[in-house]
């Protein structure tokens, strides 16, 4: 909700309101509802904009009945500096091997590496948005870390349906490979698959930068 105060002059307010709606549209926001509240004592009016980000992508899930053993999907992402910093800030894991180049140079890795659970987060994204997709609920996740992930690596999560269990439970192989097709994380998830097919809008978040 965006609140903007306008003078209680019908002509001026109408023009400024139209300008504001166009400005919001230019930034990718669709105005869903406009609510005006007048306060003529102070000759001001509060205009409440209820907006929705129009920069969305639609995703259709695969419900339990449509899942097949051997079915696959993948999801890729390149590890960038901001990813490491955001993950550290979000998780509270400030281990210097991830953040301090001088410290990391003295370790067995010889350089900074990504958090291990960063790969886990990519697996979660793949399961939630690719296969089975929206409506999936995690039950458990097993992971074995085989190789370090470094800044600039492009990771690809490869999912494969291993087994359909009773009560909508599904076992999924969750493997993460780097750009050299080296297996960096091996694992398996157990999830509750969606019961019904649905198409949902996934909001594209605004760009986050540092410095």
From TrEMBL:
<dbReference type="InterPro" id="IPR029069">
    <property type="entry name" value="HotDog_dom_sf"/>
</dbReference>
<dbReference type="GO" id="GO:0006633">
    <property type="term" value="P:fatty acid biosynthetic process"/>
</dbReference>
<keyword id="KW-0456">Lyase</keyword>
<dbReference type="Pfam" id="PF01575">
    <property type="entry name" value="MaoC_dehydratas"/>
</dbReference>
<dbReference type="InterPro" id="IPR003965">
    <property type="entry name" value="Fatty_acid_synthase"/>
</dbReference>
<protein>
    <submittedName>
        <fullName>MaoC-like domain protein</fullName>
    </submittedName>
</protein>
<dbReference type="GO" id="GO:0019171">
    <property type="term" value="F:(3R)-hydroxyacyl-[acyl-carrier-protein] dehydratase activity"/>
</dbReference>
<dbReference type="GO" id="GO:0004312">
    <property type="term" value="F:fatty acid synthase activity"/>
</dbReference>
<feature type="domain" description="MaoC-like">
    <location>
        <begin position="72"/>
        <end position="170"/>
    </location>
</feature>
<dbReference type="GO" id="GO:0005835">
    <property type="term" value="C:fatty acid synthase complex"/>
</dbReference>
<dbReference type="InterPro" id="IPR050965">
    <property type="entry name" value="UPF0336/Enoyl-CoA_hydratase"/>
</dbReference>
<dbReference type="InterPro" id="IPR002539">
    <property type="entry name" value="MaoC-like_dom"/>
</dbReference>
């Amino acid at each position: 909700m965006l609140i903007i105060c306008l003078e209680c002059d019908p002509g001026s307010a109408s023009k400024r309101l139209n300008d504001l709606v166009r400005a919001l549209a230019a930034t990718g926001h669709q105005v869903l509802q406009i609510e005006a509240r007048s306060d003529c004592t102070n000759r001001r009016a509060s205009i409440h904009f209820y907006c929705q980000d129009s920069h969305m992508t639609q995703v259709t899930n695969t419900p339990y009945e449509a899942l097949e053993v051997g079915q696959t999907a993948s999801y890729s992402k390149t590890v960038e500096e901001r990813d490491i910093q955001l993950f550290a800030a979000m998780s509270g894991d400030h281990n210097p091997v991830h953040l301090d180049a001088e410290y990391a140079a003295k370790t067995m890795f010889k350089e900074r590496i990504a958090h291990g659970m960063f790969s886990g987060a990519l697996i979660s994204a793949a399961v939630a948005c690719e296969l089975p997709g929206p409506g999936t609920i995690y039950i458990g996740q097993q992971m074995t870390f085989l190789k370090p992930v470094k800044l600039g690596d492009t990771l690809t999560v490869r999912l494969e349906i291993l087994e359909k269990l009773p009560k909508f439970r599904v076992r999924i192989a969750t493997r993460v490979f780097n750009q050299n097709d080296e297996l960096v994380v091996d694992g398996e998830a157990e999830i509750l698959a969606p019961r019904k097919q649905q198409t949902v809008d996934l909001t594209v978040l605004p760009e986050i930068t540092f410095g």
